[in-house]
Design goal:
Length: about 950
Amino acid sequence: MQTSSDRHEYPSHWEADVVLRDGGTARIRPITVDDAERLVSFYEQVSDESKYYRFFAPYPRLSAKDVHRFTHHDFVDRVGLAATIGGEFIATVRYDRIDADGLPAPVPADEAEVAFLVQDAHQGRGVASALLEHIAAVARERDIRRFAAEVLPANSKMIKVFTDAGYQQKRHFEDGVVRLEFDLEPTDRSLAVQRAREQRAEARSVQRLLAPGSVAVIGAGRVPGGVGRSVLTNLRDAGFTGRLYAVNRALQEKELDGVPAYRSIRDIAEPVDLAVVAVPTRYVPEVVAECGEHGVQGLVVVSAGYAESGAEGRERQRDLVRQARTYGMRIIGPNAFGVINTSPDVRLNASLAPEMPRPGRIGLFAQSGAIGIALLSRLHRRGGGVTGVTGVSTFISSGNRADVSGNDVLQYWYDDPDTDVALMYLESIGNPRKFTRLARRTAAAKPLVVVQGARHAAAPQGHAVRATRLPHATVSALLRQAGVIRVDTITELVDAGLLLARQPLPPGPRVAILGNSESLGLLTFDACLAEGLRPSPPLDLTTGASAEDFRRALSTALADDGCDAVVVTAIPAVGETSAADEALAQALRSAAAVAPEKPVLVVHVELGGLAEALSAAASTAPQATAPAPAASADARRPGPEEHPPAAVEAPDEARLIPAYPAAERAVRALAEAVKYGQWRREAAQPGKVPEYEDIDEKGAAEQIDHLLARGEGLTLGTQDACALLGRYGIDVRRALPAPTPDEAAAAAHTLGYPVALKATAPHLRHRADLGGVRLDLADEEQLRRAYAELTDLFGTPTELRPVVQGMAPRGVDTVVRTVIDPAAGAVLSFGLAGAASDLLGDTAHRLIPVTDRDATSLVRSIRTAPLLFGWRGSAPVDTAALEELMLRVSRLVDDHPEVVAVSLEPVVVATSGLSVLGATVRLARAPVRDDLGPRTLPVV
């Protein structure tokens, strides 16, 4: 526990773990009175030049007065933060609140002077940039709006830290000093800079785990079998190109299967980049400490007995991550299956998979070891299922994903030149906002296919995840909005991945079908229609078709401008030989090569020879590899400055054709590729969040502050809700309370006939099907009769809460809602009103802020959308007005995070214009947006 420095409590929420530019980690925390010795030790390790840059004069040591000043803070007007590794300072930053004359000042002064000092050994790692993000966030929390810094002109590194941060700044030179002033309000550029740094740092941290120069397996047993010995054997047999060591405190031998063996990692003279920890749980803390002291960069913890085992295990898991981060190490696991990197420069199989898959272009991530095995197995197989048309670039099975998660791996895959397609099996998403952001960026560059486990149950016990109120269907819709290809099974995951890995994206949904079986062609035709594709009538080549017949037919189909993709169906002829299979495969490949912009798929029935022939150039089956020479201390991988050789591709590998054993599987994969291709084309021209001149953002903010002064969790009354919505140009049709028949008649007189009489009690609200609404009441007599009917049927007026409302023009009843989910963020939902839509779950969703393109697609995304566009001769309604309404609601929620829920129901969309007949608005204090703050690793 840290001791408070001065008059305020220690702000523990300022503590954070961050990933640095080189992939290592550091901990940032406030400096306290307990840090005097650490500060002195830190300062002693700083060069005279760095001290001079900090104090503008020779300053060899800190005086007692200096130490007191730099360790005593009030956490408001004076704040100091330190970056630490192994508990020791590697950098510090401090701000002091000042007035307009540059003198110390209390609140309400909103400017502060800031200064950094980074240990020379850690300069160039991005420590100062990370500290600047965190000290700026602290300053904003303490109502400081602007930083000032004085820097010597020769201190170019520190000037660059400030100028590269992306804030709006001013610079001037006086008295031999550069004075920088910059506002702390985040800008689009500062946020972009922050996220670019985050991507580079997190990608580098994963790269260090996947491409180590040396690996130690801690817990490798003396006899074959066991987890540690298996991993060691797999590393050796895969031909790992770096140094390999076996570590076990019980070892007396100097070698284990030709691998240098040691009793402790401390005994290894050379640096160790990656340690695979396979020891009983009780020994893991000691092993982690030894690894940290030896300078190990990362850990793969295959040991079990952590959060998956219950409450005590969860606490052990937290301690494990905290301990590893103390030393700047990242962790895959615990309870991990391991990692694989098939690059010829690395050949890393630090996993329990006994065989190495062939190199290829697919990246695999699985939170479950069992699913990881299944994925590798599916990709290995050449027959009896989907043909393996490409291999694996990297494979990560994260186990409990206590530290390294799917988000980190996405950061790595984003600009990994060896990965063209990313396949992920996720049982939980720890930070959905960040995952969605990273997925959108990744999907714009390469396909990302995801299958979610535990969709209808809680996340696995080992996974620390944020609670979400969103149903799985909503989460899936939001992922699709981000360009993620969402599938339901491991089989579909592999089917889609194999198509996307070696075939171009289809330019549209038009599909040609040809083959030597009319029945199989018809099945394919039906499957295309079921998946929303536009197939042409199948071309039957008859069972007597030769390879040349197939080639000509495929060439003709691909040359047709009305065709975007081709599905070839094939059944074996009686007595057909493997030579015939090879001839057909060659014919299909040669025809496909002429039109490289259109995908080709094959549906084969009991035609294993064709499946193998189509993909023989680059199978993912395990490859036989000569054992690597015994690892030695002088074995080296190419240094980071050396360029690895280009990947070697077999002839025609880029045009290999995936083959599927069933029409449904081929067509489903193709349909996903079509939807993804459409998303890519739309993402290339993103929509805009429109500006509306009649929006009163300032007035809305003032009203919200005034309303929240009444208390938290406030559901607005009708008058306040209508007033707030009105500031954003959203007019709610007036409704007047009618607690008695006479007051109902008076309300109708005010509004003008015809009117509607509605019961607004919670059990009857928006339930016209229950009879709580009477419409088109033309006069007072009809109104009084309807009033009597409602009270006779449902109870007293006090129970019914009746209101009178003027009739709106006829149209289609719809619902527009927003909700702030603690995990996913702000979500806008749309659907038609009524029990049928609720029962069918026919609702579409988009993340806020919604663009004009999002609003257009949202209206068209529900299954009942044809009702809005003139279904069966009805008049089309004003969808443009509906889209504008959703954009205005989105702006309201995005501008004011205190608006935590909005429900507009019903919204009657007429042929011209619309009417909002009911509105509910809920306010609460703005939730913390951790995705907009400084870079941090998840809290454990």
